[in-house]
Here is the input.
Amino acid sequence: MTAVRPVVLDAMGGDHGPAETVAGAVAARRAHGVPVVLVGDEPRVTGELRRHGAAGEIAVVHAGDAVPMAERGASAVARAASSLAVGCELVSRGEGGAFVSAGSTGAVVACASRGIGRSGGVLRPALAVALPSLAGGASVLVDAGATADPSPAMVAQFALLGVGYARAVLGRADPVVGLLSIGSEPGKGNRLTRRAAELLADLPLRFHGNVEGHDVLTGAVDVIVTDGFTGNVVLKNVEGCVRTALAMVAEAGIASPDRLAEVARRYDPETHGGAVLLGLRGSVVVAHGSSPAATIARACSVAYALAGQDPVAGVEAAAAEPVT
Amino acid sequence: MTAVRPVVLDAMGGDHGPAETVAGAVAARRAHGVPVVLVGDEPRVTGELRRHGAAGEIAVVHAGDAVPMAERGASAVARAASSLAVGCELVSRGEGGAFVSAGSTGAVVACASRGIGRSGGVLRPALAVALPSLAGGASVLVDAGATADPSPAMVAQFALLGVGYARAVLGRADPVVGLLSIGSEPGKGNRLTRRAAELLADLPLRFHGNVEGHDVLTGAVDVIVTDGFTGNVVLKNVEGCVRTALAMVAEAGIASPDRLAEVARRYDPETHGGAVLLGLRGSVVVAHGSSPAATIARACSVAYALAGQDPVAGVEAAAAEPVT
Here is the structure.
């Protein structure tokens, strides 16, 4: 393990701006022992730190611009002085071990993919999201939307990145990997998954074989690996279906809306640390825009855990397959 | 509209065998006015008909073999004397307008794809499943698993097949089509959906543009078109997530299991007519294995409605794209 560098936190991201992010940084440092560097409008950030009696306790790097929540893609990347751009640059230069933002996922992924180089041997980054399972734990879905058209070798690498996440964030010593497909038998699936299954069988990981759509929330495996198109459709489908099912129950008038909202919160993927972009020289944790300070602090802890391990051990082996 | 031919019903399919299927055929004929031909073990089927006082009222075609529920794929197709094979042959010869079975989806799709030729101009068949929406209606998901690696032109055809289904089964005069993708903006998606979106924009149908995973149960569009891999993952994910969400509520102890089971039944896709294989010279309705007589009768009505219209009008236009 290398010396662990601080977590770089985008102070300007999210719906609540520096008030919640700075409070989150203070909580991350004081309650969880996570070293943090804040990036954003220096006078505002320092003012917020003062409110917590933490001026001088947490380093601040100035960024004169911020990416608005509605902005993404090329126009977000074009803001060279934004807290996103400056923060990613710090990680790229090795001054931070990971990056955390509550900005829009699209903008953070675009800026980080551009601003933070890929780890050696990694073909493409992947987005990991922990889905709470009924059994009480969580499974990580990877790729949940970073790479829409991966090759089989990329999918195999996503599995290795997911294993690193399951170890660092979910605390699984030897995570079990399932390939999301149609039909549980070997050989079932589409061209991409059939080839990916062959590659996964040869990698140094515990490959369970195929899992199906109904296995996503059961905790059957620790890592659910898929391409970024299917993964993003499934992630949004999970959110939509759980919301709809709870609305059905509310409509039937057989449970109180307040109690149902509690259930919804308990199974909210966001409580498990946000979406994480893996495969870069420093993981990137995307917290939800509405995150309160405690969620920001939790995201910083996740980022710190990921920065403390080598998530890309073994990815070179999976990159041997020619990219088609 | 051509003269409507009878619905061919596999008397041997399903968990309950001829007892429920024959009762379903009698109900389809007497309650819904649907002409039915039963295919199966003639003595047993006629015996069941007698119990309903319907011997001679419904035609029976003998089949000396039956595909067990656990069997699928090549070994199911190899049973040339099965009720599945004989029934599909009747439809292929034009003696039936559609085929209904409560056998396993895998076996029925394999036998029908082999035994019933494709309609003129259709590149590949697609499986359609009606998903109940919270708003009270239903949307049809197509392809829910017949063709795992379609070309963009095939996906565009699936939309036309889905429009035919939405008209005949859901009663929509001018169905709205959404393409399942990631990101609602035009140009978002993977290679397949980006090209399919261009083709869909040129077809004679109401194309809404992209829809996302969280739109699947909202009734935002009448037809949700996708490739058979994504569609099958999503279909099973919907089932799994609704089941899990209701289990969460049960576990929280805030609603009685009986009342929750009622909610689950109300939103069960099976009440909306089963999965339908479209694009063949006679639609194939796959009812759930556990279907009681009333569900079999409903499946026969759906098959009859589909047989009464031309589900492939316009598919030739969508086939102009070279298959890659």
Notes: Chain B has a mean pLDDT of 90. DSSP finds eleven helices and eleven strands in chain B.
